[in-house]
Amino acid sequence: MTEREKLALLEDMMELDEGDLTVDKALDDIDEYDSMAKLSLIVLMEDEFGVKLTGDVIKGFETVGDIVALMNK
Amino acid sequence: MIFSKFDDVKIAAISASVPENIVDIAAKLDDPNEDPKFIKHFMKNTGIKAKHKSGYEQTAADFSFSAAKQIMEAGYYKPEEIGILINITQTPDYRTPSTAMTIQKRLGLSKDCMVFDINLGCSGFVYGVSLAASVLKTSSATKGLVTVGDTLARGRKHIKLKRSSNTGLLFGDASAAILLEKDADRGFCSALMSDGTGHKALSIPYNAWKHPEGPESVPGDDIAVFNFTINEVPAILNAYLEKTGTIIEDYDDLVLHQANMMILKNVAKRVGMPMDKVPVCLDRYGNTSGCSVPLTIVDKYGESDDDKEVNLLTSSFGVGLSWGVIGFKMNVKDILPITIGKDTYEDGYSDDAEMDQVAEE
């Protein structure tokens, strides 16, 4: 899966337009990255990549790239 | 997992009672004091569009009484036949005695009856039914009542709850009643689990004995609760299926605690149940805590005139952490329609009672 495809998954999850996200974008600057989006992220990561996210891991995310780095396929 | 098999007890009737007042969350889109983006996002993610909310003149006990009275008036039991009454609530009338005592009095149940409350939240249905069935199985009692209900939307009089997150919109008020009865030809199974290491994930720690003063609510750990739910609930459902030698296709419905749509979809997906066999009532009633499973059953079948048996697989889960599964068959005609609870109870205590100061010894 390419980096763009991974970004597209996150854009789809947060109902953003294609191309809205880049890996260096700060998560704090994304209004749509709210508490419900974090729950959606847990499901996305587990279903698509087999990665279980804990609260501590999610709290440690600063940029979109931090999430993309865990999308390991 | 604590597995129980009740081979001579049946769920004989189910009812539910809700407040008359409806909170239309969709209407808040036009409220200048609300953030329409937040409201739209909340509705989309939780699936909740409306809920029922009690006024201060009623408590969860009133709706629990109404639901239990409905089953009695439908002819399913006489007051003197009830040998156990368990009331499950997080919003009791009193710190002591158990709210179940006033429900016993109001229903006119006899003294030959075990009566008590259980402090459990969203898992209340599976725990209450399992415990009542255990008592019926091992005692001289032949019929038992479980009432389960909360008024978390209503809050407490004089105390305005802050709405710091989704939580303030999430909860709806309602109660349900379940009649259990000894029956040599029927039975059902349950599976129960608890995890006290998660007690802080969902908690109201203040204003009881350990911390007598403090805020009415504290934020929960949404992520921990979500992870618990989408992992532990499918796991116990699958373990239950294996233990009972059944498969998910054997069941007409998978009735889940109505936490939010995201949780319903994920749990259903993980146990292989299509969403058209996962009834939903949270869109109109919100998250109704412990009574959400029986309320969902009543919402789906209560108005039906069918005389047919349905096989239901149910799971409740939440604060504790606490979770469980019950699978049971019952006739649709024994599922009564949802009623609007109009009952109130004048207990003689005054809301303006003087505060007695007791000197420290």
What layout of secondary structure does this protein have?
The complex is a heterodimer of chains A (73) and B (361).
Chain A: H1 3-13, H2 35-49, H3 55-60, H4 64-68
Chain B: E1 2-6, E2 9-18, E3 22-24, H1 36-46, E4 50-52, H2 60-73, E5 82-88, H3 100-107, E6 114-118, H4 124-138, E7 143-150, H5 167-170, E8 174-182, E9 188-194, H6 222-244, E10 253-256, H7 261-271, H8 282-285, H9 292-301, E11 309-318, E12 322-331, E13 339-340
Parallel strand pairs in B: 2-13, 5-6, 5-7, 10-11
Antiparallel strand pairs in B: 1-9, 2-8, 3-4, 7-8, 9-12, 11-12
Helix pairs in contact in B: 2-3, 6-7
Q: Order of strands across the biggest sheet of chain B?
A: 6-5-7-8-2-13
The CATH superfamily of chain A is known as ACP-like
As for the number of domains of chain B, it is: 1
End-to-end CA span of chain B: 46 Å
Query: Could you state the order of secondary-structure elements of chain A as H and E?
Result: HHHH
What's the architecture of chain A, going by CATH?
A: Orthogonal Bundle
Please state the average pLDDT score of chain A.
91
What keyword list fits this structure?
heterodimer, A: 73 residues, mainly alpha, Non-ribosomal Peptide Synthetase Peptidyl Carrier Protein, Chain A, 4 helices, globular, B: 361 residues, alpha/beta, Peroxisomal Thiolase, Chain A, domain 1, 6-stranded mixed sheet, 5-stranded mixed sheet, 9 helices, 28% helix, 23% strand
Describe the structure.
The complex is a heterodimer of chains A (73) and B (361). Chain A is mainly α and 73 residues long. In chain A, 51% of the residues lie in helices and 0% in strands. Chain A contains four helices and no strands. The mean pLDDT of chain A is 91. Chain B has a single domain, classed as Peroxisomal Thiolase, Chain A, domain 1. Chain B has nine helices and 13 strands. Classes of the chains: A mainly alpha (73), B alpha/beta (361). The interface between A and B is medium-sized, with 14 and 15 residues.
